[in-house]
Description:
By secondary structure, the chain is α/β, with parallel strands linked by helices. Strands 12-11-13-14-16-15-21 form a seven-stranded mixed beta sheet, sandwiched between helices. Strands 3-6-7-9-8 form a five-stranded parallel beta sheet, with helices on both faces. α5 packs across α12 and α6 (115-140) crosses α7 (156-164). The termini are far apart.
Amino acid sequence: LKWRPAPAPRAPLSRTHAVLPEVLSHIEQMSATASAAMPAVRAGSNLHRRTNNAKKQSRSSVIRRASTTKTKTIEAPPNLERLRILTPWEEAQPVLKSEFGMSDAEIAEAGALSDEEISEAYTTMQLCRDFENECNQAYMAGKIRGFMHLDNGQESIPALLGNAIRKTDLKHSYYRDHCHAISCGVDAGAVMAELFGRDGGTCRGTGGSMHIYDVETNFQGGWALVAEQLPYAVGAARSIALDKHLGTGEAEDRIAVVFVGEGGAQNGRMAECLNAAAKENLPILFVVIDNGRAINTFTKDVATNQEVFNQGKHYGIPGVLADGQNVQDTMRIGRAAVHHVRTKGPAILQVHTFRFNGHSPADPEHERNRKDEKRWARAACDPIKIFEESADAARVDLAACTAKAREEVRKAIEFANASPPPPKDLAAQLEYPDATGSVDYSKREPSMGLAAAEEITKRIVPEATLTALEARIEALRAMAGSEAGISIGDAVNLAILEEMLRDPTTTAHAEDLQAGSSYNVPANTQQAFGTLRAADEIIDEGHFIGKALGEAMNGYRPIVELMNANFGIYGIAELSSAGNTFATTGGQFEMPMTIIGAGGTAPNQSLGAEHSQPFHAYIMGIPGLKICTASKPHEAYGLAKSMIRDNSPGVLLLPVKLMKTRGPCQVDNFLPLHKATVHRHASQAAIDAGKAVTVLTYLHGTKEAEDAIDQLNAEGYDVDLVELTCLKPFDADTIRASLQRTHKLCILDESTRSGGVGATMSALVNETMFDELDAPVSRLCMEDAPVPYATEMERAMVKRAADLVEGVKAMC
Length: 812
């Protein structure tokens, strides 16, 4: 394929780019005429770097397309750093053959746009333009609050979506999501009502502009953190592959679509997700919306290479570039990319656009030449005007399409204005999908029913493997009932194997999974259920927590094992979104995701600061998470079983130094996720003598407290020992019942003084049970310093049995 520059007399500065890097590499070899005709572009360099010769030429942009009969020349200001590109359909076809392996028939089908399709595309563009303009007016009138991001100038992308993306496809957008949602079938009135914060909105007013969701059309966000949606979409694509594997899919050629800006595509999540998509050949299309800048910063100022469509080459994923100002070429090239994903595997579509508005209404647009670019782009690069000047415009009743779009927007505004506000307590109602204490987990069946679940398992798991798995489960159950007992790691492994055998929608993600990770928690899952249901993961907790989130939104129950729970800090953003999703979507998407990990800070751990962080304290402030801990096999097993069946996102934390400690475990038990566990009651004699104290603790603190009891008893003291098997929600009833006996509270805490678990518990007790206290709450916790390695320093930092003895005595 040879580079074919635009004829110099017609286009002194036309931005005509072919799609392949091999093509781009020929630019430096162009003749002087060709150099004058367009700016030079290097393979691996910025897409829009100008040559010195080009800078000297008259600054004009020529709009040239295969379907265009008119040529309109508009002077561009001399200070612009980014002009339009052209990707004519006839030049894209050889690329689609060589890179995507498309046949002539497939290319012909992608390129054939009927009159009806052209009319619908134009209507969609007008609908999106009018909708966003009305949003801008409503924002200025105070009807829309907070952040809002408009899509003006990028309407060719919604036109493509409306044409090529189906209702059954799974769509993940970002914060500039209004038009993506509408073009994918979400009701425009519901979108406008959501922006108005009304109960008739897509999410009942809980999400707002940046969080449009609609379960009926599989529109799954609206995500506000840049690039966070990428692993969620990969998880959604995995759910499609899992549906095919289980035989439960509605349509075999469904795909996932994820939108990301060219700046967001520089995020490391993009590389991770391309790798994951390629590794499992997932049906996912990465749509890169390239408007050249972040809020203000030019992408070329921070990115060495803006050719995002070429990022997939390392992974064998093809990519293609489209001129987003030409709706016909965007649709043809985009349809070809969609067809590839439906029939072969993942692909990247980069659409070069111009954003006519600032990042948000609050954006002053003061950075260099931004306003000049916007004025020029509105005149020279408007996809609606460009279409209206094309030959294809004669195939469309422009006036009728425009009137139809305006009427739909009018009705959307009317609906939003008429919709009532949501109930004041709606947010509280949507804290958890499964309200606290409302579920008997022992009776919850798989979504398809027990009989169908058993049939699926027998069909997808080989008989010999199933026999071996059942034998392994029986061996673990026998161990649990033996005199020696079972370890915490094996108890959780037993719970996971039982649940994955019972419910084929249960999946597992972990590092080093096939080897059982560090403590056997996910052992034998991959050997029994295969790599799709039990996935070995790259070393980035955020990535595979994100994929699990995408699976959970689409009918699966993922279990994520963190080899070291403290490294879950890599996934804080994903955990936050998991906790928010049910409420933010107005209760549309449940989040049955379980995170299990060994962590905490044990005395004499000698692991240093990074492995000793109080991850449990870090996540306490995330709304919507159920957070449990277990220091013994019985509690670890029972909580794991319940959490896996719960429809809320849950985190089960285990004590890293005690994972191989064995103890009794009653199988088939389901423990509540909202109750603390009382391991010991103080004697009546100690209570009568005023020498009884309630001790709240968790993880390694439970063993430390048990180790202190003999010495306390020998000196006449005793304790009610309460293990915080639920950190959140707060079990006020159990704690109050104990304080009504002892009237003193000591918290043996495995987190820091500031912002720690003990700080939260102490505050809650003081706020709600102050009258039960005869003394101030005592907190035995780590000081606000990193946990050191050396034993002498560590002993002063991490509290243990000896500290508890002194603390109890000091209270009495």
